[in-house]
Specification:
- It is globular, with a radius of gyration of 12 Å.
- It starts with a helix and ends in a 16-residue tail after the last helix.
- The protein is built from three helices and three strands.
- The chain has one domain.
- By secondary structure, it is α+β, with helices and mostly antiparallel strands.
Amino acid sequence: MDANDIKLMDRLLTMSADFDGHLSILKFTTNWRISFATPSSREDIDEMVVGDTFELAARAALLGGLWLPTPKKTPIPD
């Protein structure tokens, strides 16, 4: 994890307080999935926010699940 990923993780943890502290982060061969719920079925996993990288999935989760194009590597503001 780099400094941007750590900042994104901190923001995900902060936001998870609005969801009773739930935060699920899954790493698959081809993508990452993030949710503020605990998945209990394959359908739940399919509904999670998805991104090719942790950064893309985290940014999408923080923006309410919007799919984002691959951004240029820019620092996450404090």
